[in-house]
Design brief:
Elements: E1 6-7, E2 15-16, E3 22-26, H1 33-40, H2 48-56, H3 68-81, H4 86-91, E4 94-95, E5 101-106, H5 108-118, E6 122-128, H6 131-141, H7 158-162, H8 168-175, H9 180-196, H10 201-206, E7 212-216, H11 222-235
Parallel strand pairs: 3-5, 3-6, 6-7
Antiparallel strand pairs: 1-4, 2-4
Length: 238
């Protein structure tokens, strides 16, 4: 399903997003958000990548495509100016009045906290997986968006990037799946995201929250995830 209309300006037929029921997926790259989005089939807003392309990068005179580490730098700069990050963009938006409307997705405790306060009808589905699992999924998905700049000298940095992210055994397992250049490129994404967004922050904030559902995507099948989300919405009358 294609993305629905989203605007930062009021238009005929659009309603403030803050007044709309909204299902927000929360999680870092590789936790399974895109797969769940497709399986649910709900009407959806432009995703995080699109909103950053439309409203964040132009603020700094940049147009996509750019390497992921450059996006991290610019989105970090944006959060320094606007602590709510992408959630601040959402809260200012106008959308078509459709239910349930889905957004993929928010990252980090600050974005989720802002959305909790400024999007009072929003519900949250937190998808969680270990860094090693996320890396394996990135190695298998072959998404051109995941590219980063590499140089021949970076092999020596591989274990440094893995420090605090992967165990030596997990790194060796990843290296058995793909060439080291590809492993390094994807490992940089996982490591940079962990540095920029504490993966446990949203879990701490939303654990046992009445507007939130937590999914361990390593322990659930896609069918179980879909069933859990639909049951969550049904319990809340959506």
């Amino acid at each position: 399903m294609t993305s629905m209309v989203f605007s930062l300006e009021a238009r005929p037929g659009l309603t403030p997003l803050k007044d709309q029921p909204l299902l927000i997926l929360v999680g870092l790259t590789g936790v399974g958000k895109s797969t769940l989005v497709e399986a649910l089939g709900f009407p959806r807003l432009p995703d995080r990548r699109e909103l950053v392309d439309l409203y964040v990068l132009p603020r700094y005179g940049v147009s996509p495509p750019i390497p992921r580490e450059e996006r991290f730098r610019l989105t970090r700069r944006f959060r320094e100016e606007f602590p709510g990050g992408v959630a601040e963009v959402l809260a200012r938006g106008f959308v078509e009045p459709l239910v349930p409307l889905l957004f993929d997705g928010l990252r980090g405790e600050a974005e989720v906290a802002y959305a909790l306060e400024h999007l009072p009808k929003a519900l949250f589905v937190v998808l969680h997986a270990r860094e090693a699992t996320r890396l394996k999924r990135l190695l298998s998905r072959q998404d051109a968006f995941d590219r980063v700049r590499l140089s021949p000298e970076e092999m020596a940095e591989l274990r440094a990037w893995a420090e605090g992210v992967l165990s030596p055994e997990e790194l060796e397992e990843a290296l058995a799946l793909a060439p080291w250049e590809e492993v390094l490129a994807k490992l940089k994404i996982v490591a940079e995201e962990k540095r920029n967004y504490d993966p446990l922050g949203p879990l701490r904030l939303l654990q046992d929250h009445p507007r939130a559902l937590i999914l361990d995507t390593e322990g659930l099948s896609l069918e179980e995830e879909v069933g859990a989300v639909r049951g969550f919405l049904k319990r809340l009358g959506l």
